[in-house]
Design a protein that fits this description.
elongated; three-stranded antiparallel sheet; 3 domains; 15 helices; Helix Hairpins; 5 strands; 6% strand; mainly alpha; 385 residues
Length: 385
């Protein structure tokens, strides 16, 4: 509570009312805070003051994060080592992303599909345009890469491009290049029969056209079987693929967090057990005085030093609460393993579903595009005749 108050006073400068609540009912003690948007000095809003007194790059959340990190370091608490690898978002955006409905999720999904198909970065830029993604790329600028969905531009001609960095660390230029290289070296599912756009020459040959039709129908049939498996219509395929992709991303983050917590807990168990072994030596040392204490310290100097170092590590983890027993932490580790196994199964199912739905939606779109191309060709012939 004291650290939270210190952060609020520095961030709000004593000009806004705020309320804090400390959660001690969880393994990770944490703080929630809300503050009044109206300044109690002059009645102006928080946004008005922030826009006037700070630059655009230093507003609100980046400033708050800096203050919070400084306070945590000062009080020996952990901070996020690489904040650039994730992006904060408001509740509405988080909720839309969770449901797979936000435009950012759709854009990231579309970019990921293009990355899988690209030979190199130049090919990626070309294929973005072919897959409904508008791109601005200027390697001479600091902000070199920007994206926008073509459908977003159609709905709102005044819509602005989104910086790659805003989408997240994985969508910046260098990371996309690395991902393309990784996908090139991986095994990717490629249909045995590829959908082909019928050319005038092929259309003139009935046997060739029938062969292409059979291949296309075979692929489309597979796609429809996948949709039937998940109880979806062709119109729902792409939206469902985006939603599943979004869920898979959330599960991946949760699995990473569980893995980090398991590693940390296992390290804690080792240290607590070691402290338990060394505690009799430390207790004996503390009970002595004078020359006996000095003689004892020289004899057990290495072990006493090890006890001190391990004790400091535990204090960093539990600075304001009682240190749990090794058995209690081991029980928690078992719970985390069970939770991880459950989420891992859910992740694998979501991964498979996203892959299948993505493939199905692409095949159906290609088939429809080919049909449209054929109709246009027929219309042109009729006009010529």
């Amino acid at each position: 509570m004291e650290i939270g108050q210190e952060i609020c006073e520095e961030f709000l400068k004593g000009e806004y009312q705020y309320f804090m609540a400390c959660h001690i009912d969880k393994e990770h003690i944490h703080l929630h805070c809300v503050f009044n948007n109206t300044n109690c000095i002059d009645g102006r809003t928080f946004e008005t003051h922030e826009n006037r007194r700070t630059t655009k790059q230093d507003r609100s959340f980046s400033k708050l994060r800096s203050i919070t990190d400084d306070a945590c370091r000062k009080h020996h608490l952990s901070v996020i080592a690489h904040p650039e690898m994730s992006k904060g978002k408001c509740y509405w955006e988080w909720d839309m992303s969770r449901q797979g409905l936000s435009w950012k999720t759709k854009l990231k999904f579309a970019i990921d599909q293009v990355v899988k198909q690209s030979e190199d970065f130049d090919d990626f830029l070309t294929k973005c345009a072919e897959n409904g993604i508008l791109v601005e790329y200027n390697p001479d600028h600091k902000i070199d890469l920007k994206f926008m969905l073509a459908e977003q531009k159609e709905r709102n001609p005044r819509a602005k491009f989104t910086r790659a960095k805003t989408l997240g660390w994985f969508y910046e230029t260098e990371q996309i290049k690395k991902c393309i290289e990784q996908y090139k070296g991986a095994m990717i599912y490629v249909p045995k029969s590829k959908i082909r756009v019928i050319t005038p020459k092929a259309d003139e040959n009935k046997f060739v056209r029938d062969a292409i039709d059979r291949a296309n129908m075979k692929l489309t049939s597979k796609a429809l079987n996948i949709l039937s498996k998940y109880g979806l219509t062709p119109d729902e395929a792409k939206k469902a693929a985006v939603q599943t992709f979004s869920r898979r991303t959330v599960l991946a983050q949760e699995l990473n967090q569980l893995a980090d917590e398991i590693r940390e807990r296992e390290e804690q168990v080792e240290i607590i057990k070691k402290l338990r072994e060394l505690r009799p030596i430390y207790t004996e040392y503390k009970s002595l005085t004078g020359r006996k204490k000095e003689k004892y310290r020289k004899s057990y100097d290495a072990l006493l030093q090890e006890y001190h170092e391990n004790n400091q590590k535990i204090l960093k983890w539990y600075p304001y609460s009682h240190t749990p027993t090794a058995e209690r932490i081991e029980s928690r580790i078992e719970e985390l393993y069970a939770e991880r196994a459950k989420k891992n199964a859910e992740y694998n199912a979501a991964k498979q579903k996203a892959s299948e739905l993505s493939q199905a939606s692409v095949e159906i779109e290609n088939y429809l595009r080919q049909e449209q191309s054929r109709d246009q060709l027929k219309r042109k012939r009729n006009e010529l005749e």
